[in-house]
Design a protein that fits this description.
Radius of gyration: 23 Å
Shape: elongated
Number of helices: 3
Strand content: under 5%
Largest sheet: none
Structural class: mainly alpha
């Protein structure tokens, strides 16, 4: 009989959309923050997406293209569901690949 505790399930971050991203910030008057939130609400979008569009417009004018994603990030359960689906699809693809013999293994 062993007293080993079961290993806990690995936790998946609920902020997967931040992986590979960097925070870009600035300090502005409270009125600017309120105006951005108001515009985002009126356009049924997020401040993040408003900023991405504005940054892309600026960078495009300077010949840098539009590198900021203008796609809303998946959050919470939607992000976890997307991760689970991607993981499942990856596992299915891997299981369909033909097995290659290991180096030094004798073929029968």
């Amino acid at each position: 009989m062993t007293d080993e505790q079961p290993k806990p399930e690995p936790r998946i971050s609920r902020q997967l959309y931040r992986v590979g991203k960097r925070l870009i910030g600035g300090h502005f008057e409270a009125a600017v923050a309120k105006a951005l939130k108001r515009v985002a609400l009126e356009q049924d979008t997020t401040v993040q997406l408003l900023l991405a569009r504005a940054i892309n417009d600026l960078l495009e004018r300077h010949g840098e293209g539009r590198p900021a994603s203008e796609t809303p990030p998946l959050r919470g359960g939607a992000a976890l569901n997307a991760l689970a689906e991607a993981s499942k699809a990856s596992a299915e693809t891997a299981s369909k690949r033909p097995q290659t013999p290991k180096r030094g293994a004798k073929s029968r």
